[in-house]
Design goal:
- By secondary structure, the protein is mostly helical.
- The chain has six helices and no strands.
- α2 crosses α3.
- About 6% of the residues have low confidence.
Length: 107
C-alpha cells in the first residue's frame, strides 16, 4: 500500500483500512491519472484490463464492486507499482511521463 501513497494515489493507508465504496470512483480516477495518463473512469478500467490488473471489468464498469474487490484492487495496484519499480523497462512509459511532467512544470 505504501506504493500507492508514494505515487499520490492515496493520501493515507489508514483511510483505506475501512473501505467506503463511495470513494472508489475517486480512487479509480487517481489511478487513471497517476498510472495511465487518462482521466475518465471507463478509460482507467480499460487500461487496468490491458495491464492485467483486473480481469473482470464488468464489476467496475457497472459499479457493483464490494469492499473485498476494492481491497484486492489496492493490493494489485500496489503489486503493479512494485513490479514497475523492479523492472524499469516495463514501466518506462510511466517513468518518462513523470520525468516530462516534472520538467514541463519548470518552464
Amino acid at each position: 500500500m505504501q506504493n500507492l501513497v508514494i505515487e499520490g494515489i492515496i493520501g493515507s493507508p489508514a483511510a483505506w483500512t475501512s473501505i467506503n465504496v463511495k470513494n472508489v470512483p475517486a480512487l479509480i480516477s487517481k489511478i487513471g491519472i497517476r498510472l495511465f495518463d487518462v482521466s475518465s473512469y471507463d478509460a482507467t478500467i480499460a487500461k487496468m484490463v490491458e495491464s492485467k490488473i483486473i480481469s473482470s471489468p464488468d464489476i467496475w464498469q457497472d459499479k457493483k464492486y464490494t469492499e473485498q474487490n476494492v481491497r484486492d484492487l489496492i493490493v494489485k495496484i500496489s503489486g503493479y507499482l512494485g513490479e514497475a519499480l523492479a523492472y524499469p523497462f516495463f514501466y518506462s512509459k510511466y517513468l518518462f511521463y513523470q520525468f516530462e511532467k516534472c520538467h514541463l512544470n519548470d518552464y
